[in-house]
Structure formats: structure tokens, C-alpha cells
Amino acid sequence: MTLRREFNVPIYTAKQQKIAKEINSIVKNNDSEISISNWKNWKWQINHTIRDINTFEKLLDIKFTHKKRKILELTMAKFPLSITPYFLSLINKEDYENDPIFKQSFPSSSELKVNKYDMKDPLAEDQDCPIPGLTHRYPDRVLLHVSNVCAMYCRHCTRKRKVGDIDSIPGKKEISKCIKYIRNTPIIRDVLLSGGDPLMLSDEYVDWILFELRKIPHVEVIRIGTRTPVVLPYRITNDLVQIIKKYHPIWLNTHFNHPREITSSSKEALRKIADAGIPMGNQSVLLADVNDCPRIMKRLVHRLVQNRVRPYYLYQCDLTEGLSHFRTPVGKGSEILESLIGHTSGFCVPTYVIDAPGGGGKIPVMPTYLISWSTNKVVLRNYEGIITTYKEPDSYNPIFCERNCQDCKLQLKLEEAEESKAIGIGKLLNDFDKEISLVPNDNERINRRDN
Ligand SMILES: *Cc1c(COP(=O)(O)O)cnc(C)c1O
Ligand code: SF4
User: Fold this and answer.
1) In whole angstroms, what is the distance from residue 154 CA to residue 91 CA?
2) Which residue intervals of the chain bear CATH 3.20.20.70?
3) CATH number at 134-365
4) CA-angle at 104, arms to 162 and 229, nearest 5°
5) Is any atom of ligand 2 closer than 6 Å to the C-beta of 197?
6) Residue 341 DSSP label
7) Is the pTM of this model over 0.85?
8) Does ligand 1 lie within 6 Å of residue 137's CB atom?
């Protein structure tokens, strides 16, 4: 058997080495040695995040015209530039203008365009906020914004209005207020840590938040939404996964948009997360000129499941201001799903959703498979275009539910079935069951006794 684990792959290419050296000379940090261990140290990556055009130009051997720079600077004043050396190292210099990593991370003058239907807060998250930093939209789950910073600022970010605003990183006091709301609201069974990126916080801070949430008995699951496996895979350290796994069940959602983002380093991060028993999902955003292609998306979902990540959502790009150049028609998403459903494993297919402007939540959109129906038959078409019928039952006694559950023939015993009952010889051997013998049902002698 061959192990396909990639333990010993050198996760430091010549290109990365060169970038690391150049960064060092730019920050005139010549004494500190540049090594693989520096490159793979997430704090080094964050301390050397590229935030200005000059450095970007030098690292990629690009020279923007004076006019272009002016526009880029205007764009950055609205939403900062920030890209980790690791993520930048994935850009293909030869064709950077069409590079999906470049497009997601580098400002574009199109961001300055604000269309008629654009909105600052299209999902009305700020309106469904009982406490600053907490969005309570759906009945049983909340979004807890624990960080306003990210390792890389995605140009397509929904939360541009907030993210990048380092002056408003919530402190323990603010988060405690949100946690108190959760504690006092027993209907909440699922808490999503979001931001910004929750894993930009220190290990100790993550530990504290998870510890506080885990103390609340009605919080059944906790989810972490993070892009670090994509843009800063070295953040996923052994220490971090050890902390997270103390608080199971924890789920983690990440944000891969293009197959090129799945590298040796990110695979290693995903392996650590999966090995810690943390189930993973992926949320992609459908982006024009980045991943709006059935072939790209199919490759992406295949790579994800190979790395034990389940494609969860494919988002239609929302109506946030300045994102018009990223938006596709809804039909593009439908076309992508059409190319996946039936053509590949069911668990590779994400749910395509439109997050309702104004705050209605995520609405799933699917190609149409049910093409007609009558009172006893439905007509369907499959992924190949075969048209078929399903005959519905001739008789079906509908249950008229008056919420009289006591008298309903359906079993409403929702607690878990008992598994620990001893049966067979085990019944005789254990000490907790009083039974001393096993007698067949039709034993004549015992039957006589009963009479
Ligand atoms: C997406 C979202 C959730 C989680 O939704 P799921 O469909 O359960 O993943 C919760 N709250 C808000 C405000 C959201 O936008
Ligand atoms: S990681 Fe998420 S929150 Fe951060 S910039 Fe990207 S899309 Fe926005």
C-alpha cells in the first residue's frame, strides 16, 4: 500500500525563497535569517504581509503607470491591500493579470464603481444585531464576529464595510457581552465564529472563546469560518488543532475559490484539521473571471474532497458596493451545478445560494429537474436529459396534524434509542440485569405453569 500523505514534500519552492529574500531586503531586515522555518511561521507571514503597491511591484516585477497607481491608491483607501507572502508566491508572474490569486487579492479600479443596486450592508447584518458583533438572523444559530482582520483582504469581501478596520477589533469585554446573550438565549444551538478571520486571533484568545462557549449547555455545535487554510496555511499549527479539538464538536468552514489555491502547504493544513477530527466544509464565491467555469469548479470540488473537505456552499456574489465586476448572472451558477449534479459524486456538489438582499438569509437555487406533474404522476428529467416519470401512490392517508402528539401513531420519541441493553448470553453474564435464565417462548413446561 502506498501512503499518499505529503509529509516530506518540500513546502518551500525556489520562488518562495526568492520572495522571502526580497521581502527581507525591502524591510531592511537583513540580519534575521530567511529560512523555511521563517517562511512557515504564520507570525512571520503576518509581519511581512504586503500592504503597499511598491513592494507588490518589486516582488512581482511589475511597474504600474502613474495614472494606474493613483487609481489603485484611491481603491486602497476604501479597502486596504493585504496579501501574505505565501499567497502572493502563488501568483503566476507571466500572466498575472488573469491570475485568480491576483484578481482576488489585488485592488482594481472597478471597485470604485458603485451601481444603482449596490448596498453597503446588503445582507442587513447590522440590523439583525441584538448586540454589536453578533448577528442573530436564523432561529437557532448566530454569527459571532470575533475579529475584524484577515491575513489577506479578499477584494470580493461581503463585509468590506467592516473588515480591515483594525480600530474595531473586539476585545474580551465586547465578546463577553455576545456570549452572555447566547447564554441567555437557549434557542441558540449553533454558534458560528466569523469575522474577519477568527484564526487571526492568538491561540490563547481562540482557546478562551471556545472555552466560554462550550460552558453553555445549549450550544450543541460551534463552527469556525476561516480563510487561513487558503491564504495562511501555516496558521494551522499542531498547537492550534490541539486547542480546537478540546471543544468538540467543532466544525470548520474554509473558503477555497480556485483549484490553484490547493497547494502542498494548504493540503498539509487540511490534513491537520481533518486528523484532529474537525469536519470541514468549503464556501466558494462565484466570481467572474476567477472561477465562473464548470471545468474550474469541477476540479476544485474534486480537490476539496480529496483533502477531506466537503463543498458546502457556492455563493452568488452579493450586492456589496464595488463588486459589480465580480458578479455573474445567476444562470452561470445554475450551469455549474448542471455540470456537477449526476456527473460527479453527490457529496462534491455544493448548494448554490443567493444571500437575500435585505437580510432574508440564504436561498438555494437549483436547475429544474421536476418538469411537470399531474395528480398521480410526476415527470422528471435527469442529468443526461432523459425524461422519466415517477408514479405516486394511489392511496395515501395524509396525517392531519393538530399537534396532538400524544395520540399520533408516529413515534415522537426523539431521544436516542437505548443501545446498552444486554441481550442473549450477555444478559446472564452481566451484573446489572436481574435475569437468571433464558427461556424459549414456546417452552411447553413453562407455558403449563402460566396456565
Ligand atoms: C450563513 C449564515 C448563518 C449560517 O447559515 P447555515 O446555512 O446554517 O450555514 C448564520 N447566520 C448568518 C447571519 C448567516 O449569514
Ligand atoms: S477572508 Fe473572508 S472576511 Fe476576510 S477579507 Fe476574505 S472574504 Fe472578507
Assistant:
1) 14
2) 134-365
3) 3.20.20.70
4) 80
5) yes
6) B
7) yes
8) yes
